[in-house]
Specification:
Layout lengths: L1 E9 L3 H8 L2 H8 L3 E8 L8 E8 L2 E13 L3 E6 L9 E8 L4 E9 L3 H6 L1 H23 L1
Antiparallel strand pairs: 1-7, 2-3, 3-4, 4-5, 5-6, 6-7
Length: 146
């Protein structure tokens, strides 16, 4: 398993970040220019077991993602697992919010199924995905601090 993890300090309280994530489907396309669309495919939004659908371009490829919300701790943790074919490579991810001296630390984590060989082969893709995660953090900071 290879884990990509990116954190950024955002100068707002955790509740402000959480409120933004409670409206993820509506906010998704504003989060990053490569985000195309998003909506809740089934279940009640933000309830464990609900399925979120999103499309985005990452590293020059269109990704169609379906994820199921698996853990939800208000103002703290949003955890999901992939339920589309992407789950073979990317089984799960998290968005975590922790208080800091200036506001909050926002951390995004993606867990990939790849050993050392696949990791070396996919080195460029991993760099591009990491850059995308960094940009999402910077964009979220910009959105919420203005």
């Amino acid at each position: 398993m290879k884990t990509l993890k990116e954190s950024i300090e955002i100068n707002v309280p955790p509740e402000v970040i959480w409120e933004w994530f409670l409206h993820l489907a509506e906010n998704y396309c504003d989060w990053h220019p490569s985000h195309i669309k998003a909506y809740w495919k089934s279940g009640i939004p933000n309830k464990i077991g609900s399925v979120f659908y999103a499309e985005e371009n990452v590293a020059g490829e269109l990704l169609k993602m379906k994820s199921k919300l698996t853990k939800f701790i208000p103002n703290r943790l949003y955890k999901y697992k992939m339920v589309s074919s992407l789950k073979l490579l990317l089984p799960r991810g998290t968005f975590e919010i922790n208080p800091s001296g200036k506001g909050s630390f926002f951390t995004a984590t993606l867990d990939f199924r790849m050993g050392n060989l696949l990791s070396k082969i996919a080195k460029k893709k991993v760099r591009e995905i990491t850059q995308h995660m960094i940009e999402e953090g910077q964009n979220l900071k910009s959105i919420l601090e203005t």
